[in-house]
Specification:
alpha/beta; Rossmann fold; 2 domains; seven-stranded mixed β-sheet; homodimer; 9 helices
Chain lengths: 333, 333
């Protein structure tokens, strides 16, 4: 039997239980050319909130009644005449929020557990890792000596952005919610400073830790944090718009950055990015990550919760901030 | 005697009579190395509203009690031992809002009336012309075939931006206030279409005239026009933030662009610019403009009002939109 989570309605505001349909179905027989994957880990990403809106964004929205889209890693346990996969292969792809996926294999890739733990293929060597790597190196055009500010800094993407910038010889300041996360950034990940936006004033924090301003702001959060960061731009600063998690559940229009004219004054730029554009260069990023991991220069952390029935509660941790690093749901032993 | 306009107070909201001190003083004797300039034309620019704020922007603010900063063109009528200027030279520079300027000549340049009319040195071959040229060609990285949207399109900068884009083989749509201006854009300047934001809905206008979206948005206006344009960005679009005239007189925080996440979805960029950065390349721009003017490919229009005592009323035309092209105040015959 296969437990699945389907989209029941496009939510207004934070998703609730009624956003989803939980159902258990029989696993169908495989047709010719199909494989059956037993999913172990399901990726929970802020971007998923965008996919359940009604309108099209950079990707088609999930339709009501469809299995919720999600990145997964699992194991091929049954094959009906497939050229690429065999039983026992571990694979990563778009398996959706379900315990088992039946697929023709399109969009799935075999992963090598000797190189990285299975769950890392949803994190550092998965989509968040690729986003961080290409976002900070290509979109932000990072240079040695840059002063780098990262929001959502204890998250899957932000924590890697900051560590890459440290490797490249930058001063790195992270913004995160709560003392635990801030301590994690400075004590575990080597950030130069951290600003606790839940307990400290963001402007005083920026004044204290970025007295000379910032060359790069990598933004995962939007709202008043983006507005604060804009007041500290140096000449020719680059702002990377990777996400805006503070705005994803608003029922009104998102808050635009009032201080955007700082771009004019400082000849700065604000650029959007979508990681899929860099797909052909993923192998370069993975090679660098492997090197950095082996040299002890970079750490990743997965925050793993269990049980597909806990999907909604776990998903909401993205927005409450109640997790550190990459948020993952384990749906099979 | 020299009539001058001094800053009396940093205004909140629209400048009023009490923002300025009008005074008449005697012209002092020239010291060694000084020249006396009789100013004919004073440039009125949206940027001046920024200069009379309290805080520093990309340039020092005008201090209370100082002569209001402004670009000017005039004639040297007296010289006390100067190596660069002689009586009869026509010069352009920062003469300020006054009928006569006494200066050591720093920042002033001799202009050639045989090449362009005196007033053009405040327009097409002056700061607005340079802003348009480098903004659309360098900052926006204009390419042949781009769909270009310009706000403040009947203004000194916007009207040139659109015409340059036409010369470069682009489709050009302008946004301006009122039928007269819109007719001017399409009938006189060769814009492909115009949207009258005062009488038409901006979203319907964009839908009608930019059905395929836009590659470049050159923004002089900000506010809801910027927000509307952001909804029409194509992949890899470039937004140039040249100004935000709709926001300069607000007494609350400026309105940030709510739709800025369109940058993310469309991998687009938003870049600020300040024309002074291109100073060394001004001669290239002037050469191109001369060529285009002679070929009948570009037109400029100066809207000239008279009398230094009308400075405030004339200045306010920038914000009411009650002028076409480059706004100039004539202060001497």
């Amino acid at each position: 039997m296969n437990k699945q989570v389907l989209l029941a309605e496009h939510p207004s505001g934070l998703p609730t239980k009624s956003t989803w349909n939980y159902q258990t179905v029989e696993i169908p027989e495989l047709s010719d050319g199909e494989i059956l994957i037993k999913n172990y880990y399901i990726s929970l990403d802020p971007a998923m909130r965008g996919w359940i809106r009604e309108g099209k964004s950079y990707i088609e929205p999930v339709e009501v009644g469809a299995i919720m889209r999600a990145g997964t890693v699992g194991e091929v346990i049954k094959v009906n005449n497939h050229s690429k996969f065999k039983v026992g292969d571990f694979v990563c792809g778009w398996g959706g929020v379900q315990q088992y996926s039946v697929t023709n294999g399109k969009g799935f890739n075999i992963v090598d557990q000797t190189k990285a733990a299975l769950e890392c293929y949803l994190g550092i060597v998965g989509m968040p890792g690729m986003t961080a790597y290409f976002g900070i190196l290509k979109v932000a055009e990072l240079k040695k000596g840059d002063i780098v500010l990262v929001s959502g800094a204890a998250g899957a993407v932000g924590s890697l952005v900051g560590q890459i910038a440290k490797i490249k010889g930058c001063r790195v300041v992270g913004i995160a919610g709560g003392k635990t996360k801030c301590d994690y950034l400075t004590n575990e990940l080597g950030f130069d400073a951290a600003i606790d936006y839940k307990n400290d004033n963001i402007y005083s924090g920026l004044k204290a830790h970025c007295p000379k301003g910032i060359d790069v702001f990598f933004d995962n959060v939007g709202g008043s944090i983006l507005d604060g960061a804009l007041t500290k731009l140096r000449m020719n600063a680059r702002v990377v718009i990777c996400g805006a998690i503070s705005q994803y559940n608003t029922t009104t229009k998102p808050k635009g950055p009032s201080n955007y004219l700082s771009l004019l004054v400082n000849r700065a730029s604000m650029k959007g990015m979508v990681v899929f554009d860099y797909q052909e260069q993923y192998p370069d990023a993975i090679k660098d990550y492997m090197k950095w991991i082996q040299a002890g220069l970079i750490k990743s952390k997965e925050d793993i919760y269990e049980g597909i029935e806990n999907f909604n509660d776990t998903f909401l941790r993205l927005f409450s901030g109640d997790k550190i690093g990459k948020l993952i749901l384990k749906v099979n032993d």
